[in-house]
Design brief:
Blueprint lengths: L1 H19 L4 E4 L3 H14 L3 H6 L1 E9 L12 H14 E8 L6 E5 L7 E14 L5 E13 L4 E7 L2 H9 L7 E4 L3 H14 L3 H5 L2 E9 L8 E2 H14 E8 L4 E5 L5 E13 L4 E13 L5 E7 L2 H4 L3
Parallel strand pairs: 2-7, 9-15
Antiparallel strand pairs: 1-4, 3-5, 4-5, 5-6, 6-7, 8-12, 9-10, 11-13, 12-13, 13-14, 14-15
Length: 314
């Protein structure tokens, strides 16, 4: 019974496959239309407006594939060609190259209205540094080209990350992003926890952090952090290994209350005057702390900057 059922299923699958699939053309890895597209791209990167135009049909149109304008009439041949010089003049270290592991495809469709054109699709990386704003451009671009029977590009539809262009546009003018305080309750919190630690009161020190706070420092792998439960014994060991003579504030802390992302950050600078208990050596080590606060005034993340070389000096 199982064998009969299996044969029936296989036969039915074959029938469905036969009726469910239909070829609609051919995909090429090498094609004259691909050469046209890549040569035009090289000319575009070189800022060669005239050469770019030579690859475009007179009725050429370029469209933004992620645009939301339903009445978009497209960019014409002259405007697109001039854009080559605009990008060339705007970027240092400018390049457009195939994305790693990717290559263009040329598609010839059988449909009647597609017989005189070839579609070319590309996956590329656009890179550079914007000269005016210093914004780093490193974004993937997917493009669909329509190449006509005269080997001229008739249409291009581009899909890319619009946020990078938004950042460039925003960076042309000075903008504020919140308020800097030199006195604030969150600054008071950082002072209180620091002096609690100076006096060996670890319980009070840790009470200023949220239960899910994360801790990291400049000497650990980027992206790695420790929990409150993991950092507490490490800070206890520091108190066991070093006598804190004093922790002295350098300058004054800043509290930054950001508009973007609703961020709250206290930046503070300290000099730790220590005596290493193992050899009684006196050590002075500068520390910088960046403490992120939640809306309730608890520290939810802390980044520490210091030199272990100074801390372990012989």
């Amino acid at each position: 019974m199982k064998k009969t059922t299996l044969l029936f299923v296989l036969a039915l699958t074959g029938i469905l496959t036969t009726f469910g699939q239909k070829k609609n053309g051919t995909i090429y890895i090498d094609h004259p239309a691909i050469a046209v597209v890549e040569n035009m791209t090289k000319a575009f990167v070189n800022g060669d407006t005239d050469k770019v135009a030579s690859y475009l049909a007179d009725d050429f149109k370029a469209y933004n594939g992620v645009g939301i304008n339903a009445n978009d009439k497209g960019q014409d041949k002259e405007s697109f060609s001039k854009g080559a010089k605009g990008w060339f003049d705007a970027l240092d270290y400018y390049s457009i190259s195939r994305s790693k592991g990717a290559y263009p495809d040329a598609l010839e469709y059988k449909e009647g209205n597609q017989k005189d054109v070839v579609w070319v699709q590309t996956w590329e990386d656009l890179k550079g540094v914007h000269k005016k704003t210093g914004v780093k451009v490193n974004m993937p671009i997917h493009r669909l080209y329509v190449v006509n029977k005269d080997n001229k590009i008739q249409t291009v539809i581009s899909y890319s990350n619009e946020s990078i262009n938004d950042e460039i546009r925003s960076s042309f003018s000075n903008r504020t992003n919140g308020t800097i305080y030199n006195h604030h309750d969150n600054i008071n919190t950082v002072r209180k926890l620091t002096y609690a630690y100076e006096n060996g009161d670890l319980d009070k020190t840790m009470s200023f952090y949220s239960d899910d706070a994360r801790f990291s420092d400049i000497n650990t792998e980027l992206g790695k952090s420790l929990t409150k439960a993991e950092i507490t014994p490490m800070w206890k060991k520091f108190l066991d290994d070093y006598e804190i003579v004093s922790i002295d504030m350098i300058g004054y802390p800043d509290y930054l209350e950001y508009e973007m992302g609703d961020g709250r950050e206290v930046l503070s600078w300290w000099n730790y005057r220590l005596i290493r208990k193992s050899d009684k050596k006196e050590i002075s080590v500068p520390f910088h702390f960046s403490d992120s606060f939640d809306a309730d005034g608890k520290i939810v993340a802390e980044m520490i900057y210091y030199s272990p070389t100074l801390l372990n000096a012989k």
